[in-house]
C-alpha cells in the first residue's frame, strides 16, 4: 500500500523521478509520441461483416436507433453527409488515430466538438449503401490514411473486445497515470529501451502486470510493472493512479 498522498510539486517530482532514470533530463525528451487511450465499446450488436481486402472496416448490426458511442477521447473532424455512408462521423483521437462511423440516421455531435471516451455521438441507421440498420466502423492510423486497419485488434489493444456492450468494461483494467515525463519501457526494467514518454495524466488500458526491477520514487518502492498494449511497453505501477501496489483485477503477464 502507498503511505501518503501525492502532493509534491512538479519540480520535486522531476527531481525524485530523475534519480530512478524514469524522467528525461532534456526539454526535447519531454516531447512524447502520442499515447494510446483506454477504449470504449462503439455499439452493441452482431458483427455481420469483418475487415478484409474489399472492406475497410467492420459492420455491427442492430435495431434502428441503437446508440453509437465514441471509442475514445478526441475531436470530431467530420460530421455530415457522405456518398455511400448517407451520414458519417470521423473522430481524431489523442493518440493521432482516427475512427470513422457510418450509416447512422441521427448525428449528435458536430465538427470541431471535443468528445470523451464512451460519449453518445449518433444513433444507428441504414442510410446510404446499406441493406439494413448497422454501424460501419473503421480505424485509421492518421488523418492522411487512405486504408483502414483491422478494427478488431485496434480496439483490443485499447481494452475493448468485440462484440461488446457500451458502458461495460473489464474490472480493474482501465486506469489513469499520474505525474509528468514518465517513461514507458520495452520491458519491466530500468535499463530497457524507452518506447515513449507520458507528459501528463493519461487514461490507459492495462492488459497485464508483472514483477520487474524495483523502483524507488516519490516515497514509494514497487517492483510491479503494468503492460500498456496501446503504448507497446511497461510503466512502473508507482505511476498508475491506484492505492494498491499490485493492481486488482489485472492478470499477471
From TrEMBL:
One of its GO terms (molecular function) is metalloendopeptidase activity. Residues 1-29 form the signal peptide. InterPro entries: Cell_wall_metabolism_enzyme (IPR050570), Dup_hybrid_motif (IPR011055), M23ase_b-sheet_dom (IPR016047). It holds the Pfam family Peptidase_M23. Residues 54-142 form the M23ase beta-sheet core domain. Keywords: Signal. This is M23ase beta-sheet core domain-containing protein.
Amino acid at each position: 500500500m502507498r503511505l501518503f498522498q501525492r502532493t509534491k510539486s512538479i519540480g520535486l517530482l522531476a527531481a525524485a523521478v530523475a534519480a530512478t532514470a524514469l524522467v528525461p533530463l532534456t526539454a526535447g525528451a519531454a516531447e512524447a509520441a502520442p499515447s494510446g487511450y483506454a477504449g470504449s465499446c462503439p455499439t452493441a450488436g452482431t458483427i455481420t461483416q469483418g475487415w478484409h481486402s474489399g472492406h475497410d472496416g467492420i459492420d455491427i448490426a442492430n435495431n434502428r436507433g441503437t446508440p453509437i458511442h465514441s471509442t475514445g477521447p478526441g475531436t470530431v473532424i467530420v460530421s455530415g453527409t457522405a456518398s455511400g455512408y448517407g451520414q458519417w462521423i470521423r473522430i481524431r483521437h489523442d493518440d493521432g488515430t482516427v475512427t470513422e462511423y457510418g450509416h447512422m440516421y441521427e448525428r449528435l455531435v458536430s465538427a470541431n466538438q471535443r468528445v470523451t471516451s464512451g460519449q453518445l455521438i449518433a444513433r444507428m441507421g441504414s442510410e446510404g449503401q446499406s441493406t439494413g440498420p448497422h454501424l460501419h466502423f473503421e480505424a485509421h492510423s492518421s488523418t492522411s490514411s487512405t486504408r483502414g486497419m483491422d478494427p478488431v485488434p485496434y480496439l483490443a489493444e485499447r481494452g475493448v473486445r468485440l462484440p461488446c456492450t457500451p458502458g461495460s468494461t473489464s474490472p480493474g483494467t482501465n486506469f489513469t497515470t499520474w505525474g509528468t515525463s514518465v517513461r514507458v519501457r520495452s520491458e519491466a526494467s530500468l535499463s530497457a529501451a524507452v518506447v515513449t514518454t507520458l507528459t501528463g495524466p493519461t487514461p490507459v488500458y492495462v492488459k497485464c502486470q508483472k514483477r520487474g526491477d524495483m523502483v524507488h520514487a516519490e516515497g514509494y518502492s514497487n517492483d510491479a510493472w503494468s503492460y500498456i498494449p496501446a503504448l507497446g511497453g511497461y510503466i512502473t505501477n508507482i505511476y498508475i493512479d491506484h492505492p494498491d501496489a499490485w493492481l486488482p483485477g489485472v492478470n499477471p503477464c
